[in-house]
Design a protein that fits this description.
- It contains two helices and six strands.
- By secondary structure, it is α+β, with helices and mostly antiparallel strands.
- Strands 2-1-3-4-5-6 form a six-stranded antiparallel β-sheet, with no helix packed on it.
- Strand 4 and strand 5 form a beta hairpin.
- Helix 1 crosses helix 2.
Length: about 130
Amino acid sequence: MLLPAVSTQTELIEVIRITAAMRDPFSDTLAGEDTALWEAEQVPEVLALITELPEGERHRCFLPGWGIRAHSASALLFELAFCFRCHGARLWGPAVPGEQQGIQSFDPDSTPGRSLLARFRATGQS
């Protein structure tokens, strides 16, 4: 999956669980429950998983259940909302070039896709 060039400036990632009551797939910002903050060594690991996501065949639903907000030391860089059912991920944000904003397809059954979903699900456990 193609991430914006500014992704290299990411120092903190907020993990968002998007629930049905808060789901607006085309909102200006992710709405949901903050389930984790990933920083330090977790940031490059997660960004590598996202970058390694192979393209998939996209379906129509786009009802994202998980999302991330990527922050630099001083600002929000971008947001990504993932729908593991329709194989779509919406990328947008203040540091994302216009031509990169929108929904990309990915393969959720790939090794990076399964690993990313497992990381998301682990954030909801205490």
